[in-house]
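Hi everyone, sorry if this is the wrong subforum. Our group has a chain we'd like a structural model of before ordering constructs, and none of us has done structure prediction before. Sequence below.
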Amino acid sequence: MAGFLAGGFGARRRAPNRPEQVEPLCTCGHGLAYHDRESQDCHGLVKTAVKFDKVYGAVGYEMRPCTCRRYVGPMPLETFYAPEITD
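Answer:
Right subforum, don't worry. Here is the predicted structure as tokens:
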């Protein structure tokens, strides 16, 4: 009886861990939606250093077009249409 009381009331039940949502990204840091389907060029913008200081390094930045030429991240599963099977 003492084991039941010590173990039953002391144990907490936890919800099962859910896997983290992972967004598929290219090596440039942009998702598949930023890449053109035909040419594979990236349409995203990246923060680029344009002004430098001898002490602090980069001090000025601009948003410039991404130079990525092809999406190399994981490809999503294709979606297929399957008609219902009826008798």
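For your construct planning: The two ends are 60 Å apart (CA to CA). The CA atoms of residues 79 and 85 lie 18 Å apart.
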